[in-house]
Amino acid sequence: MNPYLVFGLLGFGSAGLATVLFAQFIPPVAAWIIAINLSALVMYRADKALAPTNTTRVPELILWLLEAIGGTIGAIIAMWFIRPRHKTQSGDFLFGFFVILVLQLALIVAYFVFWK
Q1: How far is residue 102's CA from residue 55's CA, in Å, rounded to a whole number?
Q2: Which CB contacts under 8 angstroms, 24+ apart, belong to 59-62?
Q3: How far apart are CA 83 and CA 115, in angstroms?
Q4: Cα–Cα distance, 84 to 89 (Å, whole number)
C-alpha cells in the first residue's frame, strides 16, 4: 500500500476529525491549531517508533506538510523535547524543516506589519 496515502490519511484525517470534535468546545481556529499539532507530534513519534523496524516509515513529505499547515509546534516538541530526539541529525530533512519555519515566521511578521 502507498505510504503517502496511508500516513497522509492518518495524519490529516485525524487532524480533521479532531478539529471537528474540538470545535464543539473551542473556536475552530484554536481547534485546528491543537489538532494539527497533536497530529504532527504523533506522526513524528510514530516515525521514530518505526525507524528501528523493517516496516514502512512515515514519508518526510508528510511530516513537512503537517508542519507547513500548522503543526510546527508539535513537530518541534517531537524533534527536540521528547527523548530520544528524532530527525535532528538528518541535514536534508532539517533544511526543509527550517525553510518551512522561516516562511511561516515571515508570514506572521508580514501579517502584523502590513495587514494589522
Answers
A1: 32
A2: 59/3, 59/4, 59/7, 60/93, 60/96, 61/4, 62/4, 62/7, 62/8, 62/11
A3: 39
A4: 12
Q: 27 preceded by cis ω (within 30°)?
A: no
Cell numbers linked to 59? 514519508
Which contacts (CB < 8 Å, 24+ apart) does range 99-106 have?
100/64, 100/67, 100/68, 100/72, 101/67, 101/72, 104/68, 104/72
**What is the structure's pLDDT at 111?**
92
CB 13 within 8 A of CB 5: no
d(CA 7, CA 104): 23
pLDDT in tens, 64-112: 999 999 999 999 999 999 888 888 888 899 999 999 999 999 999 999 9
Cell 518505526 appears where? 50
Burial of residue 43 (number of CB atoms within 10 Å: 0-12, 13-18, 19+): buried
